[in-house]
Amino acid sequence: MKYHHELNTIPLRKFTPVEMNLFFSIVSRMREKGDKTVRLTFDQLKDLSNYKATANNRFINDLEMTYDKLMDLRFGKRSANGLDIDRFVMFSEFKIRGTAKDPYVDIQVYEKALPLLNNLDEWVRYSLQQFNELQSSYAKTMFRLLKQYRTIGFVYFSKEDFHELLDIPKSYWNNQANIDNRVIKPIRQELTAIFKGLTIKKKYGKGRGKPVIGYQFTFKPEIKKADDFNKHAPTKEEQNKALALADKQKEYEEPATTINEKIKQKKRELELLQQIKQLEKEKEALEKQTQSALSEKEKKNLLSDLDNLFN
């Protein structure tokens, strides 16, 4: 799916993971539709959003809660001097028809919100399926934010922006242990297998107790034309494997002090080099296979041209 990156800067206040799935599934179908009313059947929307519950009454309640929370979002703009302010809702129409033979939702984007979804010159793209399968709301939000920098592989958030964008409760703000366990931990758990080489580093300020002033996220950049629109979220096993590898890599970065630690570190470095070597072999084999397939195709085309020439 694609949308303007400005949509990423709006905190989805109090949205549950289910409500996030419903909202971004709707967004994925509203793109480039202008101000036309778009109809989505309940079945279509359930399928798009990976919705698990089966009862329509529950689904209608979740849709209504999603829209109610959308009404609280602060879409708009403010002039540089702060004297001119525009505020608007994203959808001008949101009709739920649960009594229809084939229940549906009719949705229309408000005119002033069209730039968020149409004629995109700066946009964010990712697999909706992958997003919907993530469990934690913090992991979902960070997934969207990191995808904005997917070809760069680096982003830094000040502590204030981090708290705001992830809608972290104020009760956590002065308790780093809460942020580590309830915010950072699920992000690492679910996203390390998606963003290769993901590392999260805290930036510390000066003063008493060295307070955290920001968070730096780095990962291996994706290629611009990466075919990642239909990817699934990693399984628990894949997540744990990626985390173990990341933790191992973290150990490499910590300086060894004793002789035994230095020996262990060298062994770990050797293991990593062997893994890299194996990956390079697999990559070379795949490239040769692709080249071979291409050359066979070219041979067939050449033979066909020769047949046409002499017949």
TrEMBL record:
<dbReference type="InterPro" id="IPR036390">
    <property type="entry name" value="WH_DNA-bd_sf"/>
</dbReference>
<dbReference type="GO" id="GO:0003887">
    <property type="term" value="F:DNA-directed DNA polymerase activity"/>
</dbReference>
<protein>
    <submittedName>
        <fullName>Initiator RepB protein</fullName>
    </submittedName>
</protein>
<comment type="similarity">
    <text>Belongs to the initiator RepB protein family.</text>
</comment>
<feature type="compositionally biased region" description="Basic and acidic residues">
    <location>
        <begin position="231"/>
        <end position="240"/>
    </location>
</feature>
<feature type="region of interest" description="Disordered">
    <location>
        <begin position="231"/>
        <end position="253"/>
    </location>
</feature>
<dbReference type="Pfam" id="PF01051">
    <property type="entry name" value="Rep3_N"/>
</dbReference>
<feature type="coiled-coil region">
    <location>
        <begin position="256"/>
        <end position="299"/>
    </location>
</feature>
<keyword id="KW-0175">Coiled coil</keyword>
<feature type="domain" description="Initiator Rep protein WH1">
    <location>
        <begin position="1"/>
        <end position="147"/>
    </location>
</feature>
<dbReference type="GO" id="GO:0006270">
    <property type="term" value="P:DNA replication initiation"/>
</dbReference>
<dbReference type="Pfam" id="PF21205">
    <property type="entry name" value="Rep3_C"/>
</dbReference>
<dbReference type="InterPro" id="IPR036388">
    <property type="entry name" value="WH-like_DNA-bd_sf"/>
</dbReference>
<dbReference type="InterPro" id="IPR000525">
    <property type="entry name" value="Initiator_Rep_WH1"/>
</dbReference>
